[in-house]
Amino acid sequence: MTITLKDVAILTGLPISGDAIIGNTTKPGGGWGPLIRDRLGFDMPTTTPNQGRGHPPLNAGQVSVPWLVSHIQQEVEINDETPEEQVERYARIYLIGLVGGFLFPDKSNRWIQGIWLPLLTGDWDAIGEKSWGSAVLAGVYRELCTCSRVGAKQAGAAMFIVQLWVWEHLPMFAPLDPRPYRRNDDELNLLQNLPYGVK
């Protein structure tokens, strides 16, 4: 028994066919700052605003998750009159947070690797045509191998896939349904369109 691509596709809804997730792992000549400014529309300082305490928002090819979240929360809310360009910018920021912070998190959950920026700031159709499920599964297996070494204390990667897989294949470890009562038709219709892991 092992986690397969089919498991990832069914549990998460991530595509497992399409273009491979490949890219340059070295930051561009000018660093990530110009790319962020060009694609996301704001500057990220490379120094800490708190008189040197804490971490800068952009550091060694990584973007600070807390800074990104706080920056988004300071922005105006999206409504029917929000320009399409601004909506697209928020969508890209959300995607960067989702991919870098949930599908490919680091062990601290505080940093998003800058290598995801070029992949998520390009053409919308190209983003959706990539095989994200296979990349996530490869990341999980790599991290399972790394964290099995002597001295390893943490695991990164999308370990929620391992948890969902265990619940599916070894139901004695799955939590009880916190809402055992019958769901209404609206809830059932909503669940019908979501990945199996959400159900």
What's the short story on this structure?
It comes from Linum trigynum. This is Aminotransferase-like plant mobile domain-containing protein. This protein has 199 residues and is mainly alpha-helical.
| Distance between the ends | 22 Å
Radius of gyration: 19 Å
What fraction of the residues are assigned to beta strands by DSSP?
under 5%
Structural class: mainly alpha
Note the overall shape: globular
E-strand count: 3
Order of helices and strands: HHEEHHEHHHHH
Summarize the structure in words:
The model has no long low-confidence stretch (mean pLDDT 77). The protein has 199 residues and is mainly α. A hairpin with a 2-residue loop joins strand 1 and strand 2 (62-64). The two termini are 22 Å apart. The chain is globular and about 50 Å long. 46% of the residues lie in helices and 4% in strands. Strands 1-2-3 form a three-stranded antiparallel beta sheet. This is Aminotransferase-like plant mobile domain-containing protein. It comes from Linum trigynum. One of its GO terms (biological process) is meristem maintenance.
Topology of this structure?
Elements: H1 5-12, H2 32-40, E1 58-59, E2 62-64, H3 65-74, H4 84-103, E3 111-113, H5 116-120, H6 124-128, H7 132-147, H8 160-169, H9 185-192
Antiparallel strand pairs: 1-2, 2-3
